[in-house]
Amino acid sequence: MKDDSGSLRAVLGVQADGTTGVNIVNGPPPPIPSMPVLAPSLGGITVSWDGTFTDGAVPPLDWQRTEIHASTTAGFTPSPATLQTTIETLQGGTVVVPTEEPVYVRLLARNTSGTASDPTGEAGPLGPSPVVATEILDGIVTASKLAQGAVTINALTESLADTAGQRYVDAMGDEGAWTVLASAPGASWQFLTGITDARTGSTVAQATGYTVVRGTTQIAYDPDVLYRISARVRTTAASSSGTDTVYVGVVGVAADGVTLVNRSGANSYLSQLYPAASNASQPAGGGWVTYTGFLKGLAGSGTVGTTPDPRTPGQAHSNVRFVSPLLYLNYGSGSSGDTGTMQVDAFTIEALKTGVVDGTNLVAGSVTTAALAADSVTATAIAANAVTAGKILAGAVTAEKIDALAVTSDKVAANAITAGKINAGAVTADKLEAVLQLATRLVAGNPAGARVELNSDGLRVYNTGGTQTIGFNAADGSGTFSGAVTGSTVTGGVVQTATSGQRITLNEAGQNKIIVYNSSGTAIGELSAQGVLVAGTNGAVLALDPNSTFPSLRMTNSARSNEAVVNVSGTNAILGMNSGTFPSGGQTWKWRNLYGGDASTDLWAAERVRNDNVSIYEGGRIFMTATYASIGYRNATTPSQDAYLRAEAGEVQIYGALKNNSRTVPVPAAWASLTPIGWTTTPSLTAYQSLRIRSDGTRAYLDGAASTTAAFTGSRDAFTIPEGMRPLKDHYYGLVRATSGDPRFIGCRIQATGTITVFATTSVATTDTWDFSTVSWPLD
């Protein structure tokens, strides 16, 4: 396909490598991305792009990615050597560029044709953040790197409490622990043993070509825990395109343990979380590379890109409840079938305990009363049974320190209150009032919130906000409910959804029926033992009456002067107008089963009853016998006007001509021949059926194969279509060559004039046979 200037833009069909598809080429350069934003980080810098383009340019449909290039040299030109990573979403993102010295950064966009935009201006130079104590990663400081006696107990901070509480490690020795989600043609996923230079054990998993794999183990995701995700990867064989890329992350899973949840909440393994590596460059010969990232918490949209800093971990989508390991290996090769090779030595997911303070972190006597903020120790912060009698000073608990009603009968152990524990004069008349109230009022739960009360007024249930939800009056036994009532049997009385307006009532005024009212309070429907009745707003009625002489479905208009009825009697079934004067002329029309008409099995579409009560049966009819059945129009007065379809064993007959768009279409007939023009209906390969044509009354069909009588390039009239089988407008089809050799297609145009024209861009030989059996066209 070419554009208006004649430039090739796409190749459609057979490609240069023998495959078939659509290949976009020579696309115009995309617009220049907006300037990147740089920030220092530990061991490198972060580069952020907001997903927009300069001068407010609209992203082109063939945009594929935005490349991040970095160099220590000012004024550098982006090249494969300066490519650090890519951002492959128009939402933008933030990536980490590892560096030990200040670098300059430029961005450029690239489309699906591989065409690059002009680069942005330079941002920078900027170098990594200085390393301070709070930024030292786990495992960086080892015993060999510390001077003897340099670290003492007094020198340790709360970081001592930051240790792995849960750890999932896969040394890639269990093939059943992984499953392949997607792969390119010819790609493979296998497990190797005896790998002596593997860093963890002696086993690795190896991906040849583009491969996406997921761990089968699902780990419960706690949003309050910091997770460290890491994997060790190396490239043992480069793809033909050179340096390939890798993704290291997790796939989110919903609460059902089955449904996947990606960053946007969709059920897909695509666009998942990649905190450790996101399209990271993985060159061959670089040895083992460990990728590490951090996750914590939930959000309405999951984090895009890598999050290597534990102080700013990524977040999963709010619907994530489980996570599993996820790897994209040889990602840059895509589905091209390229055969680069990557190996994975280990995959780790660790739940880190951060900020935990327990007895092992505290020196005896270090926590004193003066060190605690007022009211910092509350009842909810104290473990059950943590405070015992031996830990309470004598006289420490006084009446003013106990909340009203905090001590209830269920919180007092049996026989705990004895005469020896009651001070003389402690029980007074005013203090007995609470005991007297307990005799007439029982309170369960929060006295001001969710609770159940029983007193002389009846039973009351309150929600957490102190609002009554259920009430039963002691005087008359009536009840009120503010929520739904489910799973109960209601016996007797009247049930109604409202006292007026739109509502449903059961047994209103003892009528033993369900009555439905509209918003105006007008009854529009009812259900009872006598059937179902639905009334329209204008008075029209639809009623189902199972207890009439015959079971009937009745429909009346708003004036109820006419009635349509469907019923079944002992001798016939009726569908139609059963009373009134419809249509004009005093005649009544019905669908009716007639026993004893032309045959006992006749079903007439219409019975016309004249004013003199004489019935004339005419119109559509269904007729059945033991040997055949017919359906169509029957005129009892003028049989020559009959037109119907009759089916019997082995054949279908049509009586009367078929017409379509005011032109007569012949009744289906046997196969017929076409009139040759520049072709012969006899194919060069005699094993094929000679070309022929037929019609089923609504569509024409070609069958067999044919050959040209003379070689040609361009177009050539081939055959003439018989009258009655020509289309109302031109139709175009493709013909496949039946002759052995490379597959080829040529065009075929079925014209309303009756001419079949064949056209081709390359020469068509007389020795070629072309299959017409897939060609058919509508006659309307």
Helicity level, as a percent range?
under 10%
Quaternary structure state of the chains depicted: single chain
Structural class: mainly beta
Ranges where pLDDT stays below 50 over 5 or more residues in a row are: 145-165, 578-600
> What is the molecular shape?
flat
- Our count of helices gives 1
Sheet of most strands: 16 strands, antiparallel
Cα-atom Rg, whole angstroms? 43 Å
Count every beta strand, where a strand is a DSSP E run of 2 or more residues: 57
How much beta, percentage-wise?
35-45%
N-end to C-end Cα span: 34 Å
Mean pLDDT: 79
In short:
By secondary structure, this protein is mainly β.
Q: What does the model show?
A:
By secondary structure, the chain is mostly beta strands. It has 1 helix and 57 strands. The strands form 10 sheets. It has a 16-stranded antiparallel sheet that branches. Strand 35 (552-556) and strand 36 form a beta hairpin. The longest helix has 8 residues, at 433-440. It is flat, with a radius of gyration of 43 Å. It starts with 9 loop residues before the first strand and ends with a strand. The model is unreliable at 145-165 and 578-600 (pLDDT under 50).
